[in-house]
Design brief:
two-stranded antiparallel sheet, globular, 224 residues, alpha/beta
Length: 224
């Protein structure tokens, strides 16, 4: 972590509410992935500032918002304000450029792993494997925005390849903990983990993994 983030982390801890932690099963202290709901900017902030294991996490972060040049376009397409609202012209002309000046240096100082969506994606995977090998945990937000303060029912799945890569690297099955960040209750709720089955291909188990993870990160009970 960089000095900038350490200062911001201290500041956030002075103003953010204290969050409790609930586990459906006792936590097994070995490298894992926490799969979380986004809750706007507050989800990532809480996971690297107030989460019980925040000092041992690396959060996946879209590289587009970590880059000063691409940050404005990312902000405009990521529903930072309600489309069609009365202030949209003002927001469109100001917020993306303010964000480009502030957000990239903060995120680069934070415990993040840049997520690339091109040929550089293996950089993301290599950094993720290095973090897990060093005993750290990954934090991933797989929800896809569908509008202002809204998300699609489905979640992104490309990141699940970390399961197969981790097994090839260590011979161990990676645990994925769905975490529902509940700001109203001021609580992190970790549902029963999903464990990758090395005896089956990822394709064979992906749908079931996604079903369980999506329900858990949204705080929903699974339907039989």
């Amino acid at each position: 972590m960089g000095k900038l983030f350490n200062v911001l982390k201290w500041g956030f801890r002075q103003v953010l509410p204290e969050m409790s932690m609930e586990w459906d099963e006792p936590f097994i202290d070995e490298p894992c992935v926490f799969v979380c709901n986004h809750v706007g900017a507050m989800g990532p902030i809480h996971m690297v500032v107030t989460f019980p294991m925040c000092d041992r996490v690396k959060a996946w972060c879209n590289e587009g918002i970590m880059n000063r040049k691409t940050c404005p376009a990312y902000v405009r397409q990521d529903y930072w304000w309600e489309p069609g609202c009365r202030m949209e012209p003002v927001y469109n002309a100001t917020i993306p450029y303010i964000a480009a000046a502030i957000v990239p240096p903060v995120l680069k100082s934070a415990p993040t792993i840049p997520v690339f969506h091109d040929a550089r994606v293996m950089t993301t995977m290599r950094q993720s494997m290095r973090a897990l090998k060093d005993g750290q945990h990954l934090v991933i937000f797989p929800e896809q925005p569908s509008g202002y303060d809204a998300h699609h029912d489905w979640i992104n799945t490309g990141w699940l390849n970390v399961c197969t890569m981790y097994y090839r690297m260590t011979g161990k099955a990676l645990r994925l903990y769905p975490v529902h960040i509940d700001l109203q209750r001021k609580c992190f709720h970790a549902a029963k983990p999903v464990c990758f089955d090395p005896e089956r291909t990822l394709e064979e188990q992906q749908d079931e993994m996604v079903r369980i993870l999506a329900a858990g990160l949204r705080g929903e009970k699974l339907q039989d």
